[in-house]
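Field reference: sequence -> structure
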Amino acid sequence: MREILPRLLWIGNARDARDFNQVLDLGITVVIDLAWEEPPISYPREIVYCRLPLIDGDENQTVVLQTALTTVARFITAELPTLVACSAGMSRSPAIVAGALSLVHDFPFSEALQQVAATGPCDIAPGLWNEVERLLTES
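Structure field:
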């Protein structure tokens, strides 16, 4: 798990999201699960859990992708400690987090993506990248 914004925003993989002790120890109160291929997680009651399954490509439902971006942005704005996780933590999570940061701070997606990539490895699928960028320019 890697911290993007101090004590506020993390990116993780499926294993990180299932590590209840680490999630609770870090003070994370919201988990956004983007992993289409992973089974849903059953959290303790005090954790807000949002499952918005996405794929690494350009065939996502627009409404689900838009909901993922705006949901993460709202939790950032509300300053609720949030973990955004996908299967490997390298494509969907960084793309959605960068998109949400772009919305919150009103700067280009490419700039937000550089900020996210500075914290660790990213390998965003080109189709997903294009979808997120298109949604951000339309909003």
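Note: The mean pLDDT is 95.
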